[in-house]
Amino acid sequence: MSVNKEVKRITTHTVQEMKNRGEKIAMLTAYDYSMATIVDDAGMDIILVGDSASNVMAGHETTLPITLDQMIYHASSVVRAAKRALVIVDLPFGSYQGNSKEALNSAIRIMKESGAHGVKMEGGVEIAESVSRILTAGIPVMGHLGLTPQSIYKFGTYTVRAKQEAEAQKLREDTLALQELGCFAIVVEKIPAMLAKEVTESVQIPIIGIGAGRHCDGQVLVIHDMLGINKGFKPRFLRQYANLYDQMNGAIKNYIGDIKSKDFPNEQEQY
Asked: What pTM does this model have?
């Protein structure tokens, strides 16, 4: 007799316990139902519905164009698939900066309309009011420091952040400030490994790295990069676990070939 084992949902409390006992946290992006099903079934701890959907799903050059409505659409698709993972959704550019009331409304819409479990926001002390207001409504917030892609035009480049002492010091202060405000975790992107180690050890909450070395409490990658669906994007921090571009491309070429040669469908593949 097969017993249907109840899947235990990962929560913000679970990831805190993971940090406390030294267990690394696995996080990956997903933007649609089919992909999220595969990611969740594999045992992922956190699924990030990233505004990177702007790049990998919609073909934009930056994360800036994606709208709140579009993020909610992607998030809803992912939530329907995720039975175990904690689902966190990026607040898109322009939906929270400089206006804490708008930030709260954006976060509430994401939670109500998608059923996600929390939101992620880029920035430190400058968005403190927005973070605080969202947390007051009982919505979990994940921070994001270091390279913040929504600020690409300010930085002018996707290069490593916080190499200079002044920026490193601000990152330390922002990390502590976000913890103080009540963020349950923080993503640090493309910063020196030793700085990431330092901030990871300086706070109680989990620090999840992308291009931030091995000392963080967890790691996150964009699924299209990690599976090799994207061609040509190979930063140093990326470990590519598959080459799906070539595999899928080959399969599609075979399909075209079988149609052209009248091999598909055959006698067995018709009614």
From this structure: 0.96
